[in-house]
UniProtKB/TrEMBL annotation:
This is Patatin. Keywords: Hydrolase, Lipid degradation, Lipid metabolism, Plant defense. Its EC number is 3.1.1.-. Belongs to the patatin family. GO terms for molecular function: monoacylglycerol lipase activity; phospholipase activity. Signal peptide: none annotated. Lipolytic acyl hydrolase (LAH). The nitrogen atoms of the two glycine residues in the GGXR motif define the oxyanion hole, and stabilize the oxyanion that forms during the nucleophilic attack by the catalytic serine during substrate cleavage.
Amino acid sequence: MKGNIVTVLSIDGGGIRGIIPGTILAFLESKLQELDGPNARIADYFDVISGTSTGGLVTAMLTAPHKHNKKQPMFSAKDINKFYFQNGPKIFPQDSASATGPKYDGKSLRSIVKDILGNITMNQTLADVIIPTFDIKLIQPMIFSTSDAKVKASKNALLADVCIATSAAPTYLPAHYFETKHEDGQTRSYNLIDGGVAANNPTHVAITHIFNEIVKGNFENVDIKPMDTTKILVISLGTGTAKFEEKYNASMVAQWSPINWIFDKGATPLIDVYSACSTDMVDIQVSSLFQALGAEQNYLRIQDDNLTGNTTSVDIATATNMEALADIGNKLLEKSVARVNIETGAFEPVVGEGTNSDALTRFAKLLSDERKIRIAN
């Protein structure tokens, strides 16, 4: 007998705001440990884990095998925020922004990620991982996945290279170049920037990947047909937005030059726009898909769209701001489960479904039960 459900975890991009989903993941893993013991880890429970930019880093931390125990991930979920607090100020030094080129030189990010992940390749992750990037030379998205890496040598890149690439946000960090080898030994080159320009919210990338695997006959864990969301369980974690800060208006931007669109009064309007558009459009589409089949409770989107001030930034890695982001994550757990209003884009509380922590506790039980079924069979 196969399992009953397909399980998906998705984590948005957002720089230092990765602390918000980091906080939520620590809570989810603690609930799984209450059910299945202290060695329970996020990677044990999800068929697919997708992450963009900072979400890609989190995905790697959750799924990269530990060097002393290949069946356990390198990081537990509670270690994610420790990583941000320790390394955020090095990746985003507040006193050394560049006057030319990207705001940061990226040397610390490359050094930290390569030191942690070493020679681990995409085909070695403990769950099927999906990390979007964008090839600036080819002008097209480039998606890396564990399943592709297992069948295509040219897609079996170092996990460190993929993480550095998916985090290379335009204007903030430099593009990342690396090479792999095809099966015949020929070189394949990648010229990559942040996956957020293509899929800042990679939930739809993960779901589409699963449906493609089903069509190909490669998905064997659950008896499921394409587009059947009644058998898919999705947790999608945002990194927060400033949707209702209302920083811009038509009168203001009508006068902007190209420079203003790139940088205006400490903000990056064009990046804010494409990031929010990519994030919200995916949520609207996925939410609509699940609601159409009466499976809306199978899709949990946790997002705070009321960020203000420094917490809206992707790179203010001061202790004060990072603590504020962790506090936002904790408060988000106690907010009511909410779903996006397709007309306004606002997240509206859902009557009768409790708080996000209640929903995560319910999901933890479903995830635990599914894992037990698969182990038994």
